[in-house]
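Lab manual, section 2.4: Encoding a predicted structure.

Procedure: take the sequence of the chain (242 residues), apply the prediction step described in section 2.3, and record the output as structure tokens. A sample record is shown.
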Amino acid sequence: MGIFEKKNWMNFTQCYSNGQVKFSELNNLLQLAASEHAEEIGFGYREMLKIKQSWVLSRMLIEVDALPRYMEKITIRTWIQEFTGTRSLRNFEVIQHDKVLVRASSLWVVFNMATRRADHIAIKTDYDHVLGDRYSTREQVAKIDGNIDFEKIAEHQIKLSDLDIVNHANNVKYMEWCFDAMNPKEVLDGSIKSLEMNFLKELKFGEVVDINKSEEKDGYTTFNIEKDGRIHFLMKVGRKRI
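Recorded output:
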């Protein structure tokens, strides 16, 4: 029960024109595996809803060795490395033919749906599923420095299709908006090796946000999403030389 595995086939709707899985779809697949594991061990969405709580993603790091491609079968492996009662550190591996293609680590916090604030989980949990010594990523999931210069590259108004079951913009959409604002060549050339994300504030239907980009430095480019001058999301993209 400590390690959960889910198998997936990559279909054409999940892939870019170069046949590789979209980064937003990869992120979504990881989170769906996390959700199924949480349901299995007793604190998934259905149980949390009964007490007006939910899990929300705070930080995520994805390290890419290779991306799955169209019609390929992958196994997503996930486990909890740390659980404090208010937050949880969850790790992932994307595996194909016994080779790890993608590693990820994520930090989740308990969210009170009434107060819209962080909370302490109100469900009695079993700590036997926590694997404290099992790491995944080479680096640790961390806070991104957003105190840098940005330039506006796009604008987006939150639509119905952006919302999830908690009635705010789904966190995968934040990444998707940033990728949609990039030059497609920067996404499709295979140079992206890591994605770091910080989810700072929720966004709701009808709100208008600015999507901003920093200058590349040391192989990294940082994007942010702002509303009324306040940062709601940060994403740091690391590239390899090709």
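Check your result against the sample. Residues 23-40 form the longest helix (18 residues).
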